[in-house]
Amino acid sequence: LFLIGTIFVVLSGLAFGVAGWVHTSYTGRVLIIAAASLVSFFISGLMKKLLKLTGASISFYVLGTGFISTSLLTAGFYRLMGEWFSFDGGGMFALFAVSSIFASAAMFLGMKLFDKLPLLYAGLSTLSLSMIFTVFQISPLFRYRALSFIILQAAITAFIVFKKVSERPFSVHIRKAALISAFIYGAFAACYVLITIGTPTLFSYFIITVIIAQLLVYGIYNNSKALIDIEIFVSLTAVFMLSFTFEEKFSEHTAIIAAALLTIIVYAAHRIISVLKTNCSEITGFIAVIFVMIICIANINSEHFFIETSLCLISAVIVNSYSFSKNGSARCLA
User: Fold this and answer.
1) Which of 143, 150, 156, 237 is nearest to 192 (CA)?
2) Closest CA to 41 of 66, 72, 18, 64
């Protein structure tokens, strides 16, 4: 009863401080939130050690963790740590990153104390969030951020794929959380490629090359047909991007020839190389070949005849090769 009474007295003091929030100085407001964090941790310890109420103890611990980040963000909002390290300063994302790191560290400590899986996921999630804020702080431009994210994604994915699964508790859950983080980082980078697809840059080509390489390596390594199926779509997207570059640097005619030739090469690779051959990849490549053949035919004129005709003949041979194919879909398209 004495402990419970003490807790209520402390909470009453905090309530009194909050009641006078409007008349409290900026520093005082931060101190109130920090005090609330300490009180929450104190109550959490009492709940766990003396009252054996694990659920309530975890709740107060999470609440205290939230107050830690909130107090830091509040200090940044009121510019108590300087103009740069504030919401309006150049270090805004650094402020968010540090706040997330504090929350992540507290969650990992909570994982050690309570041995609960949700705390592990919370710690990994906030750590992943801190990495996003760190990239945003270091890289001011979208293209540099996209480059940083694809490097992070590739490194995390390689670690997940090639490192043997540990027998330690929660190792599987850590790998799952890392995989989700890698997917989010990759999605950031892929957004840049999609936005610049009509006007590709070196960053666009680097990112899409890394994505294609990963899909090929992991698809072959894990014998995953799904990854190979995704890879051919990404490869054809890269061909589409290259056509824009060729058109800008040379001419529309050159772009069409290059796109047609590259499409045939992509198709041939997925038909000839056994590890790249799946029903979906072969049909997708075949449809792409038919599409570029139609474009080549439409582009034939008195000035452009020989190369277009040659590519059309190659495409015709490919189409005819499916006339008696066992693959019903390919035969129907042919």
Assistant:
1) 143
2) 64
